[in-house]
Fold this sequence. Notes:
It is a single chain. This protein has two domains: 1-48, Arc Repressor Mutant, subunit A (Orthogonal Bundle), CATH 1.10.10; 58-208, Orthogonal Bundle (Tetracycline Repressor, domain 2). The N and C termini lie far apart (41 Å). It is mainly α and 209 residues long. It has ten helices and no strands.
Amino acid sequence: MSKTTQRTESKLLKATTDLLNHNGYRELDVKTITSLAGVSYGTFYNYFSSIDDIHQRVVVDKVTKAGAQIMPSIESVESPLKQAIFGWYMALKIFSDDPSAGWIVERPQVINNIWQSTVQEMQEGLIIQAIKNGEIPGSEIDTLLHFRKARETMRAGYVYALEKIMNGSSVETVFFDFMTTLNLFNLNPKEIEIIVKEVLEDTKQKETA
């Protein structure tokens, strides 16, 4: 990709992000985006096929940027299981107060595809390590199969959880209820409650440090 092409794409993405922040996702249209970006209307379609296409790219970029920012915090946690839980908490918090939240709720498959392409491999690796470390009991195969099945339910529930936050519930409360009800790891209910509480408390301390 040439520097000119990169600059034009960046202008379109920045214009879309600015419009989302000021007007919300329902007001997005090609004419306003290209006008703000300072490019012709037709130029938009050299880079993106639709408004949903560029909006999805904005969301992917947010996930990628947020992932890079929180990686040091994740790596500072010794427990692979807590690393995984912290990652899921941040995945929910990223869009808890974001102008794209409503758009995501209306298009659950889009965000599911994004999580699958960006963080699924890392999260599964952490779960395997947690099994090997003895944090999650049971055989590696059986526990991993349980996790994968539960993960599909979690993806379906992500949008529901995000919608509850949009309606006024706190991220911490929604996440705690979500994780303890779902129990991705087939742990004792009291044990998973303790672990999730510890992760939330550790996260709060990191944010206020």
